[in-house]
Amino acid sequence: MKIRVQRETLAEFEVDVHDVTLLSLLTTIKTTQDSSLTFASGCRSSICGSCSMRVNGKEVLACSYKVQDGDLIEPLQNTPVIRDLVVDMSKAYEKNQKAKAWLSRITNSVSLTQENEKINEIQSDCILCGSCYSACPVFAVNDEFLGPFSLTRVWKYVSDKREDDEKEKIDTIQTNGVWACTLCNECTLVCPQDISSKADIEKLRSKSAMAGYSDPNFASFDSFGGGFGFDGSPSF
Question: Which of 154, 189, 187 has its CA nearest to residue 169?
């Protein structure tokens, strides 16, 4: 089996193995062929998210992906590469601080029911793998974008019945936040936990509208037909 690994230059490796995970194959290459090959791993059970990388242009977890002959392995996009398949996710994680993605003011008098917990249950399953950031086309051109991971976390806390300062979070995500997203759904397609950041962002947009915000990308119309080549005056 042959695979290609994007390092400083494209490297090709051939290993006599079949029906193995990508992580297992990379470990074999590091052990038997090139000890300098660098990649990250942890739990080997699709829980820690540390082995996230790209295969043939799509984000996967190396510990769960079954490698195929001819696969092209690359590091995640939109993040600095430390070495080979290891990237620096610190800037992406800093978006949580900018988005204030935590419980700000807790109402102690509120008791959560099972129904309350289910509202944001799946958002708690995020494993910090960074796949959504890598797949996000907006983050690729605007590094100030809060990104799908942080916005999903904002929804998790905005929808938490114990949060007593919902408005602060909604105010925070207006710039480079919910309206900057194109709703392309790429983040959802690559999430190993099946979290739909697109759906969460749509719910945050609804909350924003209720708070009096609107999409700044919509042009204002001074008269009927503005922006479409009409001046609104009658034609005879």
Answer: 154
